[in-house]
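Whiteboard transcription, Tuesday session. T.W. wrote the C-alpha cells on the left side:
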C-alpha cells in the first residue's frame, strides 16, 4: 500500500513537472508572439506615417501644378 502511494506520488510529480515545462514553453511562445506583434505594429505605424507624409507632399505638389 505504501509503495503504491509512493509510486503514485512519483508519477504525479513527473506529470506535474511535464505540465509545468509545457506551460513554460507556451508562455515563452506567447511572449515571443506578443513581442513580434508589437514590433510589427510599430513597423506598420512607421510605414503609415512615412507614406502619409509622402502622400501629403505629392498632393501638395499636385495642387501647386494645378
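and on the right, the sequence the group agreed on:
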Amino acid at each position: 500500500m505504501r509503495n503504491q502511494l509512493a509510486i503514485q506520488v512519483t508519477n504525479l510529480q513527473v506529470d506535474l513537472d511535464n505540465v509545468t515545462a509545457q506551460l513554460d514553453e507556451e508562455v515563452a511562445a506567447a511572449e515571443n508572439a506578443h513581442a513580434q506583434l508589437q514590433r510589427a505594429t510599430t513597423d506598420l505605424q512607421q510605414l503609415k506615417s512615412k507614406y502619409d507624409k509622402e502622400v501629403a507632399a505629392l498632393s501638395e505638389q499636385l495642387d501647386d501644378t494645378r
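Someone added at the bottom: The CA atoms of residues 28 and 34 lie 10 Å apart.
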